[in-house]
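A reminder from the course coordinator: this example appears on the midterm review sheet, so study it carefully.

Given structure:
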């Protein structure tokens, strides 16, 4: 369905891999990568874009003749908690601009939501698709408002909005920055470099996670899904696993037996993690468009360690 795709935040944690994935499916010249930071991509078009600049976003999409907008630019949870006003302006301003451009140019639209769209009063285990959403973080406020806006643009203007509530995403390519779930990426780097990791998240804290290849595939699958089957236009719960720090450490120890984990809990990120679900229920995504993740914790650990060993040897 998608033919010409514009991506914002293309140098971010998801964007840096999404660009290549989409180029592989739809063709290198059919994916316009944009970011606030300059870059020269190995392949394909790139343009500088500050997502709060509505006119430039519109002009770039129009000139490229984009039929799809993937709006990935955002501040993650811990940074948003440090800079709440900046988060509001960037996360909400960017989203409204991307939705407006999509309305004006008739583009299909994707943006990620997050497990951060839930809060302490949400059912913590097997969190349903449709449930209480009263987050206590600025990031969560942005994500809930964003989900509502996607619903609004679909019902009011007929924009083909689609979204995923991502859990923590783990990858060996780009490091996340300023998230609460980032420990689950960092732990693999430190396992290889030092055979030891000090976690800022306390043991016993469960959060949902997903390996990046599954996240990228789920974006493509959702965007290609038959619109008539989609009941949810705000965002779908998706998850591949839920673990606490000791469990990821145990998975690493199957390959690096001397690996040790210790704890120096960061109160800010711990409070965010405590306000999020322990595990979410992805059955609406399974039913409405066939969501399925391939990697569980151990399969992800094998792949992460293998790929990172090569990457870290070459730096
Ligand atoms: C974060 O930790 O902020 C993100 C997320 C779960 O949305 N990884």
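Designed residues:
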């Amino acid at each position: 369905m998608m033919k010409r795709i514009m991506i914002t935040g293309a140098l971010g944690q998801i964007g840096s891999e999404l660009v290549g994935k989409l180029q592989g499916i739809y063709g290198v010249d059919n994916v316009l990568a944009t970011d606030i930071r300059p870059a020269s991509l190995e392949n394909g078009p790139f343009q500088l874009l500050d997502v709060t600049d509505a006119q430039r976003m519109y002009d770039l999409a129009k000139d490229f003749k984009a039929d799809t907008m993937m709006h990935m630019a955002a501040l993650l949870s811990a940074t948003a908690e440090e800079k709440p006003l900046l988060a509001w302006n960037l996360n909400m301003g960017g989203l409204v601009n991307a939705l407006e451009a999509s309305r004006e140019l008739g583009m299909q639209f994707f943006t990620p939501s997050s497990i951060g769209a839930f809060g302490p009063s949400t059912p913590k285990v097997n969190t349903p698709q449709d449930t209480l959403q009263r987050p206590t973080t600025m990031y969560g406020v942005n994500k809930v408002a964003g989900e509502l806006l996607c619903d609004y643009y679909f019902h009011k203007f007929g924009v083909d909005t689609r979204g995923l509530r991502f859990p923590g995403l783990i990858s060996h390519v780009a490091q996340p920055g300023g998230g609460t779930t980032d420990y689950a990426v960092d732990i693999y780097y430190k396992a290889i470099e030092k055979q030891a990791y000090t976690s800022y998240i306390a043991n016993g804290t469960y959060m949902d996670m997903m390996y990046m290849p599954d996240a990228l595939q789920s974006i493509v699958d959702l965007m290609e899904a038959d619109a008539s089957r989609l009941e949810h236009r705000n965002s779908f719960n998706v998850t591949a696993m839920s673990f606490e720090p000791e469990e990821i450490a145990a998975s690493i120890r199957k390959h690096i037996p001397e690996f040790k984990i210790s704890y120096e809990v960061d109160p800010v990120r711990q409070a965010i993690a405590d306000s999020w679900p322990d595990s979410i229920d992805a059955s609406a995504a399974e039913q409405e468009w066939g969501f399925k993740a391939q990697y569980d914790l151990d399969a992800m650990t094998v792949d992460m360690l293998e790929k990172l060993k090569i990457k870290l040897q070459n730096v």
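The mean pLDDT is 96. DSSP finds eleven helices and twelve strands in the chain.
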